[in-house]
Amino acid sequence: MINAYAGIAPRSDLLLLQRLGQRLEGRSFLHINSTSKGGGVAEILHRMLPILRSLGVRTRWEVLEGDDPFFDMTKKLHNALQGSAETFTEAMWEHHREINERNAAALDLEADAVLIHDPQPMPLVEHRGGGKWIWRCHIDLANPHPGVFERLAGYAARYDAAVFSVSKFARHMPMPEFIITPSIDPLSEKNIPLPDEEVRAVLERLGIPPDRPMILQVSRFDRFKDPIGVIGAFRMVRRYNDCCLVLAGSPATDDPEGAAVLEEVQEAAAGDPDIHIRLLPPFSDREINALQRAAAVVLQKSLKEGFGLTVAEALWKGKPVIGGAVGGIPLQIVHGATGYLVHSVEGTAFRIRQLLNDPEAARRVGEAGREFVRRHFLITRQARDYLAIWHSLEHPGEAILEV
Amino acid sequence: MPTAFGFMQCATLLKATGVSARTLAELRSCVETVPGDSIFHHTAQYFLKGRVSDYTNDFAQWAGESLEERALSERLSSVDPYAASAMEAVRADLLRVLDEHLAGFPPPREALEGDAFHFNTPVTFVYPAGLRAANLAEFLVALEHLPPESIYFHFYEARVRLRGGMDDFSRWVEGSLEKGGLAGRIRSIDPFMHGVEGVRRLLVAAVREELDRDMGEALG
After folding, report:
1. Structurally, how many domains does chain A consist of?
2. Which of A327, A338, A403 is the closest to B125 by Cβ?
3. Does residue B164 belong to the interface with chain A, where contact is any CB pair within 8 Å?
4. CA dist B119 to A27, B17, B20, B30, B188, Å?
5. pLDDT confidence of residue A250
6. CA angle (B123, A377, A363) in 5-degree steps
7. Weakest-pLDDT range from B80-94, B158-172, B196-210
8. Which domain does B35 fall in, by range?
9. Does residue B105 share a domain with residue B155?
10. Is there a single domain that holds both residue A110 and residue A34?
11. Is A188 contained in some domain?
12. What pLDDT, on a 0 to 100 scale, did the predictor assign at position A252?
C-alpha cells in the first residue's frame, strides 16, 4: 500500500513511516470515532488504515454507537466547544456518559495505542487499559462557550496526550499536546489525476461553459464561507475580465441555516448567466476534483474556518488559490508564495484580476502551492505523525529520537 | 581510505507550549521565558519547514506578516542561530532586537484575532536517508538526490549540533577527502540567503567543479 505513494509523497516521509512501522510492527493501534461515513475524520481513516496495516501495525477502527438524543447532544457540544451558545442539562451529560459506558462494555478497548477522535467518545477513557491513550481533537478549542469544556476536562486529564490540528486551536491542558495538521490523500477520488475528457464531461453535465476562465469556490452554503462576498468580488472582476463564477457545494443536512443561505445566494446571483450555483450530492468527489482542475482561480474566501482542506485540494491540482486569512488557511497559503491571503471583497477581486491577467504568475504560484502541499499536507505525513506520537510517548522526555 | 559519509535526515513533531503572544510586548516577554527548545525550533529549524519567503525565522515572519513591522522583521531576520554559542545567546540576541525596537518605534498594532504567535517545541526524529558516499563522485550523485530534510540536517542543523558554524559536508570533505579548498567553498555558502534547494544547487555546482578539476588534472 505504502508503495503506491512512492514518487508522489516525499521520500523522507515514506522512509520515516517505514522505520517507525518497523519499531511498532505487530503492536495494536485502535481508532475510535462516532461515524463510519461522512465527515473529514471518517474520510481520512478510511484512507489511512490500509497504510498503517501495510506497515505491519495491527490497526483497528471502532465506531461509537449512539441514539438520536446522544448525537443531538454531541452536535451541540461540537458547536459549543467552538464558541456557540448552547444549553446542556445534567441529563444530557449523563446520557453522554451512559452511551460511552454502553459502548465500552461492547467494544474491545485493549490496544497498545488508542486514538480517540473528537469529544463524542471522549469518556471511553474511563475504561482505559494499559496502552497509550491519545485524544485527537479535530475542532478549534481555543474559545469554547464558558463552562462547556470544564465538563470534559476530567476526561481529558486521563489521556496521555492530546492532538490538535493547529497551534491556535489548542487549549492548555496538563498532558503533552501535539500539533498535527490534517491532510489530503493524493490517491483518493477527490485528488487523483483525471483525464481531460472526464473534466470536460463534468462541466458539460453541470452546464458550465468549458471555454471561459472559471473562478471556483467549493464549500457548504454557510455564511462563514462568505458566498455573498464571493459574488461581490466576481462582479468587480467581471468589469475588467471575461470569466464565470461557480459556487459548488453539498447541501448541509445538519445545518438548519444552510437552506436560508442558499436562498440568499440564489437571490444575489439572480438573473446573472455567468454565475453558476451547483448543489452536488454528498460524495461527489470526482465532480469536485474535475471542477478544481477546470478552474482558473480557486477561492476559499472564508470569514471563519476550521483547517480548510479544500485549499490543499486545490493547491494539489496546481491551482492558484485565494483564501481568507482565517483558521488553518494561512498555514496552507504563504501569502504571495503559495497563494494569496485576503481580508476583504475588494482584496479578493484585486487578487483574482492579478492572477487572470498574469497566467505565468498564476502558474508559478500554483506550482509552489502544489509542492508545499506535497511536503506538508499529504496523508503519508499525517500517518507518519501518528506513529511518531506513539513512539515519542514511549520515550517520554526525549527531545531527539533516533529511529 | 576515506571514511564514507552516511547521510541522515530529520523530521519534527510539534508540541504546543500553551504560550502565545498577540502584541510585540507579549512576544518579548514570552521569548524571555519559553524553553530553549522553543527558541531553537522557531529559529534554527525554520529552514526545515520548506521556506518560501524571505524571512529566516518564525519571529521575523510574524513581525513582518502579522504585525506588518518591516523594520523589525529585517532585524529579526539577521539573528543567526547557527553562529551563536548556545540557544541562550540566540534568545539574548532576539531580546536585544525586540527591546531596541520597542524603545525606538511607536508600538505596533496587535495581531488580528486568530493570528497570535504560538510557541511550540519540537521532538526531532533523526534517521538515515538511505544513501552513503565513499568518494566525491558518489557524494555528487547523493547531493542531487537527497531529500531536502537531509540537506537541512547536514548543512543547517549541524551548525547547532557541532557549534562554531561548521556544517557536516565541509567537515567530511576536509577531514576524509583532504580537500581543504572545496571545504572552504562549501563554508562560504550563506545558509540564510538561499533556502535548502538553493544550497543544494550551490553544493552541486561546487562539487562538480572540483570533480572536473580532478579529472582535468588526471588527464594531464
Report:
1. 2
2. A403
3. no
4. 33, 6, 6, 8, 32
5. 78
6. 135
7. B158-172
8. 13-121
9. no
10. yes
11. no
12. 57
Question: Using CA atoms, how far apart are residues A92 and A33, in angstroms rounded to an integer?
Answer: 19
Which of A247-251, A364-368, B55-59, B212-216 is least confident?
A247-251
C-alpha cell at position B34: 519559553
> Residue B79: CB partners within 8 Å, gap ≥ 6?
B43, B56, B57, B59, B60, B90, B93, B94, B97
Which residue of B37, B39, B52 is the best one to mutate when testing the A interface, meaning the one whose CB has the most A CBs within 10 A?
A: B52
User: Domain of A56?
Assistant: 2-183+379-393
Contact flag A177-B18 (C-beta cutoff 8 Å)? yes
Q: How confident is the model over B199-209, as a mean pLDDT?
A: 97
Q: Return mean pLDDT, chain A.
A: 94
Do both A131 and A109 map to the same domain?
yes
Amino acid residing at B16: A
Mean pLDDT of A239-247: 97
DSSP for A222-240, written as a single string:
-GGG-HHHHHHHHHHHHTT
Number of neighbours of residue A117 by Cβ within 10 angstroms: 25
More confident residue, A85 or A1: A85
Whether residue A128 sits in one domain with residue A40:
yes
What lies within 8 Å, CB to CB, of A231 at 6+ separation is A245, A247, A265, A268, A269, A275
Interface test with A, best of B109, B125, B146, B153 (most A CBs within 10 A): B125
pLDDT tens figures, A171-200:
989 999 999 999 999 999 999 999 999 999
- Interchain contact B120–A (C-beta under 8 A): yes
Predicted TM-score (pTM) of the model is 0.93
What angle, 0 to 180 degrees and rounded to 10, lies between the N-to-C axes of helices B136-145 and B195-219? 150
Residue pair A109/A124 in contact (Cβ under 8 Å)? The answer is yes
Average pLDDT over residues B178-188: 96
Q: Is the pLDDT of residue A214 over 60?
A: yes
Q: Which residues contact A105 (CB under 8 A, 6 or more apart)?
A: none
Pick from A45, A52, A58: nearest CA to A5: A52
Beta pairing, strands A113-117 & A244-249: unpaired
The torsion defined by the Cα of A17, A18, A19 and A22, in degrees rounded to 10, comes to 120
Percentage of chain A lying above the pLDDT 90 cut: 87
B121 Cα to chain A: minimum distance (Å) = 9
Model pLDDT for residues A50-103, shown as the tens digit of each residue: 999 999 999 999 999 999 999 999 989 998 998 889 999 999 999 999 999 999
**Which chain B residues contact residue A7 at CB under 8 A?**
none
Q: What is the DSSP string of B87-117?
A: HHHHHHHHHHHHHHHHHHSPPPPPPPTT--E
Banded model confidence at residue B217, pLDDT cuts 50, 70, 90: confident
pLDDT of residue A258: 81
A298 and A340 both lie in a single domain: yes
Q: Same structural domain for residues A41 and A158?
A: yes
Q: Domain check: are A359 and A383 in the same one?
A: no
**Do A208 and A334 fall into the same domain?**
yes
Q: Inform me whether the pLDDT recorded for B111 exceeds 80.
A: yes
Do both A83 and A200 map to the same domain? no
Q: Determine the residue of chain B that is closest to A392 in CA distance.
A: B123
Asked, for residue A189, whether it belongs to a domain, the answer is: no
Q: How far is B194 from B144, CA to CA, in rounded Å?
A: 16
Tell me the nearest-neighbour CA distance from B208 into chain A, angstroms: 24
> CB neighbours (10 Å) of residue A24?
21
